[in-house]
Amino acid sequence: MSSTVSIKSKKEFEAFFKLHYSDMVRYANKFVYRTDVATDIVQEAFIKLWEARETLLLTVSVKAYLYKIIYNLSLNYIEQIKVHARHHESIYTDLMQLEVDYYKDEKSLLQEERLVLLRKMLKELPKNCYEVIDLSRLQGLKNKEIANKMKLPLRTVETRIYRCISKLKDLAHRAG
């Protein structure tokens, strides 16, 4: 190695480790903001250094080399966290959509059941009652428009609507 510090022996490596370990953990922590992760990163960097000690040809100091490894490992960790966050966000979004779809389908099912029940109850109403409710509630006409269309006094239309709604409530109460 073309470095001023030799780390070929276990004793030299341990001395270098003890001298620089704390500073390197602080350096890694500046990127990852978690001491436990910074510690893991520094340990991994030292392992890489130890495993490459025989074949490593450095143009910079061993310390600078380790800082570069720590920097790269920290960036890899940050990128991994971002990927996990995107993945979790994607899962969360998918789950939220499933929940929305579930409740939408559930609501649609309930609405369909209610509509079936309403149609059944409407068939049980007298014909004149059904016509008024159909025009009022299902077609959305105003009472005056219904009166004109059926050629009935406005008060008669209002009375029929009231009576029909009362009958529907009674039928619904008996059905439910």
UniProtKB/TrEMBL annotation:
Keyword annotations: Sigma factor, Transcription, Transcription regulation
PANTHER family registered for this protein in UniProt: RNA POLYMERASE ECF-TYPE SIGMA FACTO, RNA POLYMERASE SIGMA-70 FACTOR ECF SUBFAMILY
Record-linked InterPro entries: RNA_pol_sigma-70-like, RNA_pol_sigma-70_dom, RNA_pol_sigma70_bacteroid, RNA_pol_sigma70_r2, RNA_pol_sigma70_r4_t2, RNA_pol_sigma_r2, RNA_pol_sigma_r3/r4-like, WH-like_DNA-bd_sf
The keyword Transcription regulation is assigned to this record: yes
Domain RNA polymerase sigma-70 region: 17-79
Domain RNA polymerase sigma factor 70 region 4 type: 117-163
SUPFAM superfamilies: Sigma2 domain of RNA polymerase sigma factors, Sigma3 and sigma4 domains of RNA polymerase sigma factors
Family membership: Belongs to the sigma-70 factor family. ECF subfamily.
Protein name, as recorded: RNA polymerase sigma-70 factor
Top-level taxon: Bacteria
Pfam family name, one: Sigma70_r2
Record keyword Transcription present: yes
